[in-house]
Structure formats: structure tokens, C-alpha cells
Amino acid sequence: MNLYLALSKKNANGILFFLSFIVSFLLLNFKKPGTFTHPQFWAEDGAVFFQSSYNLGVRSFFVSYNGYLHLIPRTVAWLTLLTQNYTLTPLFYNLASLIGFMLVFLYIWTRTSFDRYVKFFMSLSLALLPVHNGIVLNLTDLQFYTSLLIILIFMTNQERRYALLDNITIVFVGLTEPFSIIFLPAILVLYYLNVIRNKIQNIRKSTLIVYLLTAALQSFTLITSDPGAAGGGKISEKLAAFPHVVYMQLLNLISIPRLYITGVNYLIFSLLLVALAFWFILCYKEYKLTKNATLIFLLLSSLCAMASTAYRVNATTVSFTPLNAGRYFFLSTTLFLWSFIIYKEQTTKKVLLFTLLYSWYTFVDIRWIGPWRMEDKKWSMEAKKIDAFKEGSLTIPINPTPWVITLRR
Q1: 346, 386: one domain
Q2: Domains contained in the chain, number
Q3: pTM for the whole structure
Q4: Which pLDDT tens digit goes with each residue over 22-68?
Q5: For 142-188, what is each residue's pLDDT tens digit?
Q6: 114 and 122 Cβ atoms separated by less than 8 Å
Q7: Could you please report the per-residue DSSP string of 130-150?
Q8: Residue among 209, 110, 225, 221 at smallest CA distance from 167
Q9: What is the three-class DSSP state of 393?
Q10: Within this chain, do residues 270 and 403 fall inside the same structural domain, yes or no?
Q11: How many CB atoms lie within 10 A of CB 115?
């Protein structure tokens, strides 16, 4: 009987894993059709990472962009350049972004100790969250997915056999954009509560030290870069925009697109803030009961991501919504959603609730957002120009207009 139950549980886990994988893959291809059949460069894919790798070679690893190092995309760009197959370069970039997505997906299923329904809903959220599909399957925005690896590594018990893998992951993710800085307060709180105070979680000191070193290096890069590189604008302007950022972030959890275009409705905003405060109280009570600060860690990480968005982006009511600036809403909304999924045990009612919520997300994805198609820039023809390029400079148009790649010899 016990063997039968064990086999049934294993089969159920396998079924949910493959179901979430298939649904996610189909969603990604719906959101960005032609990713693998007709690949194109997008923005920094070509104009920063391919261009600097071509022009500078290995030296491009040490060039900051927007105030930060970008180890993952620069590694992909450099390795791809070694093939000298320029026709397939955009495809290689898109495949790398898919691999990064799958790493997060696999970390959820193999490294966390949650039950199968928690893993199922957590992994589905990666592809299902209704935000602008520009974030999907491109090297430029891969960072918003891979940053979740930091969260997953620190919210699980760190086994010794995974030490090298975790530390290498932390190096690559921590040295790609500012996420090692953004999540630092939340990780220090988690370490104090779960490791030092309550002694219920194993977080290796070596992994924490590697993480702190990446945060220090990114901070040094930021300080020594152009003061406006990581955000720009006056602090007073960013503080004024902060209510709009928080309002849109909270709205994105329930995804009612008609409310995005009206600006901040302070009655709805007040209700959302009350709901947020109530959720914090519930999570704190859960911490007092279990002595596990994972929920608090996820909420703090989400708030840190919100604060980072407000600092980095000059948000306005017209141009800053999940429908047209989705990448800035993805991370904080995902972390909030994960806290809801993880809270308490998975009852039938809770599974039904998330099934209904995800059905609504699917409807919003199809009805309000739809697939994201890029303009055909005739890359195969442009690649032939690169093959024939010998000296001087070469300018190649890419998506979105007017972005270009400028190559020099």
C-alpha cells in the first residue's frame, strides 16, 4: 500500500511537471511567435551585447551598461561570436534565453521542498503573468527571469552537493544587472531570522559571501559609472512617481487592464494598500507560528524590486503600465504571487482559486496583450554584410526602430 502511494505521488509529480512545462512552452511561443523560426535581434541584444562583443572581444566583459555589469548576456554574446555564424546569432540568443527560463523552472521543481501544487503554480507563473510580452525570450530581458534564481537559492536549504553550482549561479546572476544589490536587504533579514535567530534553515556561509561580493562589485561599478546611468531624473520626481509604481504593481496581481489607463484611483489604491497591510499581518503571524521567514523574505524582495523600479524608471501614468512596460512589473508581481501560493497548505479550495486566477490571466494575455511580433529586419541579408565586412564601419538596423548595430574594424 505504501509503495502504491509512493508511486502514485511520483506519477502525479511527473504529470504536473510535464503539464506545466508544456503549457509554459506553448505560452512563450504564443506571446512571442517566430522566436525560433524567424529570430530577430531586440534592442540591447544587438546594439549593446553583440556590438560590443564584436568590437571589443573579451574586453566587453568589463564594460558597464546602465551602471552595471552584465555577465550572462556578455558571456552568451562572446561564446556565440566564436562560432562566426552571424545568420544564426539571434537564434542562439533566443535559445540562451529559453535555457535561462528553464533553469528557473527546474530550480523550482528540483530544489524547493514545496508540494507539487505549489511547484506547479509557481512554475506556471513564469510564463502566465499578464505583462507586456517584450520580456519574453530575448537576451536583454533574460535577467528578470534569472534573478529569481537568487531568490530560489536562498529560500531553500542549501545542500553541500549543490555548493559549487549555487555559487557559480550566484556569480553569473549577481553580476548581471543590479539584482544582487536590490535583494540584499531581504536576504540579510532572511539570514538573520532563519539562520542566526531561529536556526531552521541551512544557508552556506560561502554562498552568502559570494553573493555579498557580487553586490559589492556591482555597487562599485554603479558608483564609478555615469551618475545618471542607472536611473536619471531628480529624486523628487521619482518620489512623486512612486505611488503610481506601487499602484500599478498591486493592480497587476488582479490584472484589470481598464484600470491601468485611468491613472491612480486613490480609492482603489487605498483598498489595495489595506489588503497589502492585511497580507503582511497574516505573513507575520505565520512567521511567529512556524519561525520560518520565507513569506516575509518574498514580500521584502518584492518591495525591494518595487523601490528599484521607482528609482530606475521615470514613470508616468501614460507610459508606465503592465501593458507597455511589462518587464518592470514582472519580478515584484511574481514574488508577491509566490508568497500567496506558498502560504499555508494547498487545500482543494486554494487550488481552485489559483486555477480561476490563472484562467483570468490567460484571458488577459489573449484578449488584452496578445502576441508580440517584431518587424522583419531581413537579418539573414544583414548577416551576409557582416561576413563580407573587412574594414571601416558598418551600421545595421534592428528592432525596435531606430536601434542600430554599429560595427568597426
Answers
A1: no
A2: 2
A3: 0.92
A4: 999 999 989 999 889 889 999 999 999 999 999 999 999 999 998 89
A5: 999 999 999 999 999 888 899 999 999 999 999 998 999 999 999 99
A6: yes
A7: -S-GGGTT-TTTHHHHHHHHH
A8: 209
A9: strand
A10: no
A11: 13
